Amino acid sequence: MDGKNYSVVSEFVFLGLTNSWEIQLLILVFSSMTYMGSMMGNSFIIITVIFDSHLHSPMYFLLANLSFIDLGVSSVTSPKMIYDLFRKHKAISFSGCVTQIFFIHVIGGVEMVLLIAMAFDRYVAICKPLHYLTIMNPRMCIFFLVTAWIVGLLHSLVQLAFVVNLPFCGPNVIDSFYCDLPRFIKLACTDSSQLEFMVTANSGFISVGSFIILIISYIIIILTVQKHSSVGSSKALSTLSAHITVVVLFFGPLIFFYTWPSPSTHLDKFLAIFDAVLTPLLNPIIYTFRNQEMKVAMKRVCRQLINYRKIS
């Protein structure tokens, strides 16, 4: 994956978010606090699921893996963005740019499959409760996890295989704060229209298709429960609301990035910050505040940690 042999460009320069020092300082404070909150929140969810036996179930197994992926989402772009806010020359090496693109799409593919797996888990739990433990057995959970990583790796490698050896002879300026595939391709010194269509087909259509499948599955769950009991429907809606919120937060920016023909630069940057910085923090907040069992488990783990420190 070394594109330097085919290119005179050794680095790419980010224009960043803004030229205003006051706004950059505000973004620095906001991004740093959000990044730390995201890392702590998602790490605590993982620790709680591991150490609390009450959460050793398929739903929380998938949730812990989603939190692990959100740690990756936070770490791929946020540290570099925060570091660049201190610098006038915001640059990234060619290999660093390609590496960033690789992990962005691996993580995106994994999270997409995990969200579908979580929707399937809720479908079985609500519509087929008597068969839940039979269907969502440990083997099925491992199958979902392995499939998620295989899909993520293939999704990323297939795209990079076509673009990594493109010739780059300048300009090397990216109007963003991180490397993304559409802007990367447009800087190539060749006709990139077919590759841009490939990116749209691979990332855009998959995102839209997965989003539609998830929304349809949630509608089916609500309608199925509603036929049996209005009370059950209300409970199901409460359970699914957190999942639906996370799905919209995840797929909304993706669909905009890869399917919108002429995105606004300002809106594009706003959604990029939202997707890279804020969404990984919102996910643990949504699942924690909407889940009484998780809140109780976190309190138990906190008490255990406090008691352990007192003993030691």
Question: Could you characterize the architecture of this molecule?
Answer:
- The protein starts with 10 loop residues before the first strand and ends with a helix.
- It has helices at 21-51, 58-84, 94-127, 132-135, 138-163, 181-186, 193-228, 230-259, 265-289, 292-311, and strands spanning 11-14, 91-93, 173-174.
- The protein is built from ten helices and three strands; from the N terminus they run E-H-H-E-H-H-H-E-H-H-H-H-H.
- Residues 1-5 have low confidence and may be disordered.
- The chain is 77% helix and 3% strand.
- 33% of the residues are buried.
- The chain is globular and about 60 Å long.
- The longest helix is centred in the last third of the chain and has 36 residues, at 193-228.
- Helix 2 (58-84) runs antiparallel to helix 3.
- The chain has a three-stranded mixed β-sheet.
- The chain has 312 residues and is an all-alpha fold.
